[in-house]
Amino acid sequence: MRGHHIIVFTLFFLIHKGSSTLCYIGNSSFHRISDIIDCTNNGLLETELYCRNITSPDGSIHRSCVSMSQYDSSWEEFGCQSSNGGFIRCICGHDFCNCSLEL
């Protein structure tokens, strides 16, 4: 019976680790491996994780992980939307989706 518990725990651990969300962070115009974060290690609940980038009117970009609680209710769809102030906010739900640049 003890062996059964170890197998179940191992499977749970592998499934949990395999379902992490990876996002780019920061505001650089090119990306390095150090610009990637596993959002599950960022203190956010795994079922609520998204990648986000916000482009300012001056063209600067800020990339991050966000949870549903940080996901403004006025921006209810994935994709990109513009605000009245000229900001463009994009939210997406799969690995590396908040940057179109290649490593």
Characterize the structure shown.
With 103 residues, the chain is α+β, with helices and mostly antiparallel strands. It has a domain of 72 residues. The strands form two sheets. It has a four-stranded antiparallel sheet with strand order 4-3-6-5, with no helix packed on it. Strands 1-2 form a two-stranded antiparallel ribbon. Strand 3 and strand 4 form a beta hairpin. It starts with a helix and ends in an 11-residue tail after the last strand. The N terminus is likely disordered.
How many strands appear in the DSSP assignment?
A: 6
Helix content: 10-25%
Main sheet, how many strands, which sense, barrel?
A: 4 strands, antiparallel
Q: What would you call the structural class? A: alpha+beta
Our estimate of the beta-strand percent is: 25-35%
Topology pattern, helix = H, strand = E: HEEEEEE
The rough form would be described as: globular
Keywords:
single chain; 103 residues; alpha+beta; 4-stranded antiparallel β-sheet; two-stranded antiparallel sheet; 1 helix; 17% helix; globular; disordered N terminus; (salmon louse) hypothetical protein
Concise structural overview:
Helices cover 17% and strands 28% of the residues. With 103 residues, it is α+β, with helices and mostly antiparallel strands.
Q: Which SSEs are present, and which pair or pack?
A:
Blueprint: H1 2-18, E1 22-24, E2 36-38, E3 49-55, E4 61-67, E5 79-82, E6 88-92
Antiparallel strand pairs: 1-2, 3-4, 3-6, 5-6
Protein name: (salmon louse) hypothetical protein
